[in-house]
Structure formats: C-alpha cells, structure tokens
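INFO  loader      accepted 1 record
INFO  loader      residues=282
INFO  predictor   begin
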Amino acid sequence: MRVLPRAGSVRPGRVRVPGTALLLLGCLPGFAASFTLATCPARVGRTVAVLAPHPVEVRSAVLHQAPRPRIVPRTAWAHGAGPDQPPPRYDDKVVAVFVHHTDSSNRYQCADTPRIIRSLYAGQTGHRRWDDIGYNFLVDRCGKVYEGRAGGVERPVTGAHTQGFNHRTAGIAAIGTFTAGVPVPRAMTDAIAALAAWKLGLADIDPRSTVRLLSSNGRSRYRAGTAVLLPALAGHRDGFATSCPGAALSALLPAIRERAARLQGRPDPLRRPVPVRAPIIP
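INFO  predictor   done
INFO  writer      dumping tokens
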C-alpha cells in the first residue's frame, strides 16, 4: 500500500514553495521565472533544481585557432633602428597573408639572421624611403620566426609588402631566393604554415579558402577600387606583377595551405565518411 505524505509535509531535500508564489511565477516568461527563482532567498533558490533539473547549456562559437608559434621579438635585430619612425597603423583584422622571398643569399648561418634583417631594414628605409621594414614577419632557413614591422605581432598591423593589398593582410618573408630548382628547407615551410595558421586563425580564416580584398591602387595587378577574390594564403605574385616568392616556393604553397589548415584543426575535405550498409535480411 502506497502511503501519501500528509498535507503540508515536505519531503527530505526539497523546499516547498507557497502556492501563491508558484502562481505568480507561472505568469512570467520562462527566463524571467528562472531569474526570479535564482534571485530569491536561499530557501527558495534551492527549489530551482526541482523545477528545472536540466538547465540549458549555452556554448560560444569555437574558432579554428592554431597555437602561436615562437616569434623572436623585434628587439633582437632592430638595435637603434628607426628613431624617427612614425607610429604604426592598424586595420580591423587580418584575413589573408602574402608569402614573399627576400631575394637575398641562401648561404647564411641562422645565427646571422638578425644582421640580415637589419640589412633588409636599411635598404627599405634608406633606398626606398619606407618608414619601416615592409614585412610583418620573416622566417629563416632554420624555421625561426622573427617579428618584422613594428606594432605588435598579435595586432593587425598595416604592412608595406604587397602593392595594393597591404590592408587587412600580413606579409611573411622567407629569407633567401627560391627560384625554380632551388631547394626550400622543410623547417622554413613548416614555420610559414604554423605562422599563417595562427595569424589567420585569429579571424577564423581557413588558409585554403579565398577571401575578398580591395585593391588600394592601380600599381597592383588590379585597378584601384577593384574587389578581388584571392587565396587567404597567397604568394606575392597573386596580387602584384612579380616572380616573388619564386617558382620553387610558389609550388609549395598548396601543401603549406593544407598543413596550416590541419594546424587549425580543420577537417580534411578529401576524407569522406565511409557509408555504412544495412545488413541484408533474407
């Protein structure tokens, strides 16, 4: 025989809410009622578990972010560089990266990289009269990444690397010359992929995708004001009439894009789920 609780009794672990209170709460929208219960005194607050035992979980959007690679700061090479340098300029975000080569010697020791970057800086600010080195980042043959243009590696610094497409992009320069037939060190391409994956991931951009960019002047491949679809991980020659980053490095860009996408945790589009066939029932 089932024994019912006496009127007015409360089971252990629960708190009885007066009928008038429940009536008032029933007139409120669901969210307002939950908020009212949550802000009531502790005695009524414990009743939330009884009224709503399965709260709705709200999840934020998950971005495809890759780990930030180790980046050698600008202070490692810019000893006293640019005393009259103007403050950096910024865009709202980076949606594409352009890969370059510096068209300099491949025969260098990686310990000499800071000296090489200083030499590039001197040429661009002296002969070309730029306000700073044009590239946002530089990568040497050993795979070490260096901060280039001033302004902060995590911020969308406006560079001076691709005529017409310096806005909302970052420039990554491979130190060396990588024309046809020249071997490109694996450590260098791996570092470019890791850097691009991290930088593009800040805006949740797939390195294998195309993005819409606006040409800022007619000295690029496109007239000023033209909206163009370009690879999110592009070669310099995609936006400007040049052979940079060299035929050898350009040929590796598809593989670099794929590696960058994997570092962001994106699925391989070539991997398709194997269909499960239902058993044949005789």
